[in-house]
Amino acid sequence: MTVLKTSMRNFFAHKGRMALSAVAVLLSVAFVCGTLVFTDTMNTTFDKLFAATSSDVTVSAKGASDTGETTADNGKPPVMPASVLDEVRKAPGVKSAEGSVFTSAATVVDADKDSLSPSSGAPTIVGGWNANEARTMKITEGAAPKDSGQIMVDEDTADKHHLKLGDEIGVITAVGTHTAKISGIAAFQVTNPGAAIFYLDTATAQKALVGEANVFTNVNVTAAAGVSDEQLKKNVAAGIGADYKVQTAKETADANRKDVGSFLDVMKYAMLGFAGIAFLVGIFLIINTFSMLVAQRTREIGLMRAIGSSRKQVNRSVLVEALLLGVVGSVLGVGAGVGIAVGLMKLMSMTGMNLSTDDLTVAWTTPVVGMVLGIVVTVLAAYLPARRAGKVSPMAALRDAGAPADAKAGVVRAVIGLLLTVGGGAGLYLASVADKAAEGSMWLGLGVVLSLIGFVVIGPLLAGGVVRVLGAVLLRAFGPVGRMAERNALRNPRRTGATGAALMIGLALVACLSVVGSSMVASATEELDKSVGTDFIIQSDKGERVTADAVQAIKSVPGLERVTEYKGTQADFTTPDGKTLDDTSITAADPTYATDLRVETVAGKLADAYRLDSMSVHEKFAEDHKVKLGSQISVAFKNGSTARLTVRAITSSDGVIDQGAMYTSIATLKKYVPAGKLPLDQLVFASAKDGQQDAAYTALKSALHDYPQYVVRDQTDYKQELKDQIGQLLNLIYGLLALAIIVAVLGVVNTLALSVVERTREIGLMRAIGLSRRQLRRMIRMESVVIALFGALLGLGLGMGWGATAQQLLALQGLDVLDIPWPTIIGVFIGSAFVGLFAALIPAFRAGRMNVLNAIATD
């Protein structure tokens, strides 16, 4: 009980000094709990949606996926004859059944040809209105569509695009463009996660989405009273045979949940990873805080030991303080985490993904995980200072001698740090010379971990040299004040090393990712310049295939020298070594593609691969399956017949664009795949006649005005788009890393604040002999800048080493240009100086306000 009272007294006596450490714990716990609440809420939202939209049993056409996605390569959904509906209705246990038609491979535009698709990446679904849809949608205005001239839209989409009854919109599919006027607006009865939904009458949906009558994509079946979904599934399957997919509501919902869950898991674990980095940085802050508090209470600890307190009691007293800090920070962090989750939901709503706070899900495990993490991390971080406090002898403490200097421990630390750093360097070297990406990735991971730990351990040893260099370059210009700031930073290398290490971790990751991102852009840009021989690339940014109507619009543009179609499909290969390779990708293109993309060949000519019944393979495939020029491969095309294609060219397996692709001609594909089953183009390439590039560029954009889902890019546009995409990804990662950097800044603030308290008497003496308040504040600011730049130098150097090694692994995939983004690196370094200035504002202000006589009188 005495230990608890002492700990409580000390905790509240130093509550101001504990505050920043508590904030670090709060932020880290809040990020963990916010991530868990946010992803749990999204799971709840989708679970409700899938449960509400799934009928008791669903019958799908052969080829439809478990998730209900019905888009085929030809842009049309796989269908089944309407006669299946009659067979289903005859099955025992069926209360009712109805056929439906829907697709997510459609683009819907308004009268001005502007897309009505969600900007969040959520799907656009067009289907027939039926009783199953009426379970989840309520008509709030107008009426359901009754003929081909009418269409109904969901309320969220209508509000977003200011649509009203009577407005004309167009539905663009592989079949063509269907126009209709809005007859009704329907609201979701469950939370809409952002999809845009449009409804036609069933007969119109069949013609507009599939191009033929008397077919369905799905049959929705409702069970009679007392009949389970499993029993109904067996009855229906027995009645219609094995040519169709039959699923219960649970199976459909589980498949959808798994599909969405894979994305949510990636997001969840990525965010938790950044929270872990923030926790790691927070450990340094807590260690520094308790180390300095213990040092300031040396005499008090000596008195406790002198009156009979054991080492364990002193140790326990410090750990109880840490426990209190962990509890306070974690409790506040759990509450803040719920607030972060709500904020993320609002942010997602702004991007078009609607998430209702009514579905806010706080599982009992979330606060438990947050509390356990916050408390355990805090107590573990305080263990070393607590152990050090217990080792202080009573007489040394009463003399205010502090903890005994342990030269041996310093040597051991230096040796361990050097060994870890050398081991990390060896791991990075082995990664850079690896022949296989998988092996190299393992060495890279090991090298990153060892080098990071090594730099943390060896930080105090590095602090002496680096701070002196920084002092000589930056501080000497400020005269005696600068020299005092340098000596203050050198006074306790362990403290300076720990404070700088907290900032080092975040900046190392920033530098590494900057190098990797910049190298990827530079490599891809060089590859484009070297390999791409076309002027324009036309594609959908959402992965939609190019419809035949759009291709015709492209071909009608004047001033074009050539247009190249590019189709991707799947086939089962039987190679000369007797192996069968299922679902292997093969690319069919026009012969002009050999000009549009300059692919390196190791045998034969790529142009020959576009002859009828011919193909190319890449070098690695040829080696693995004993393929050479003139070999024949049996190719069973998806939705088509089997061909025996002769290998006319073997291409290099290196390169970035179309790496590992195998080519044949569109003429060959048409020979073995029926016209109605031919895949649509993934991309279309176009080249202008000499001197007509600008005019052709404008004409292409004009020709595709009615097809807003497709984007026309020249090579400059393509390079910029690539740069923007990687830049957006890096900005997102930098934003998440900002949490760790904020915690590191708190560490600098706390270190300086406690350092000022620790040096109160010294500051009073300096003021007494003539140091002005302005000079004192400048000294503290300079000390903070040096510590921040020390951490920045270590972090940026380490990160560039990691990034350069990672680029060597990317070179195995064809990204062989190393590009150091010096403007970013220099900007981060300069920014670190401003971080140091900012962190010193409050400590410097408090130091300047000290009463000189009271400061001198302080023990």
Automatic annotation (TrEMBL):
It comes from the Bacteria. PANTHER family: ABC TRANSPORTER PERMEASE YTRF (PTHR30572:SF4), MEMBRANE COMPONENT OF TRANSPORTER-RELATED (PTHR30572). Residues 19-237, 499-697 form the MacB-like periplasmic core domain. The chain crosses the membrane at residues 269-295, 318-344, 364-386, 407-430, 442-475, 496-516, 732-757, 784-804, 824-845. It holds the Pfam family FtsX. This is ABC transport system permease protein. The keyword Cell membrane applies. InterPro entries: ABC3_permease_C, MacB_PCD, Macrolide_Exporter_MacB. Belongs to the ABC-4 integral membrane protein family. It is found in: Cell membrane. Residues 60-80 are annotated as: Disordered. The lineage of its organism: Bacteria, Bacillati, Actinomycetota, Actinomycetes, Kitasatosporales. Keywords: Cell membrane, Membrane, Transmembrane, Transmembrane helix. Residues 274-394, 736-851 form the ABC3 transporter permease C-terminal domain. It is a multi-pass membrane protein. It comes from Streptomyces achromogenes.
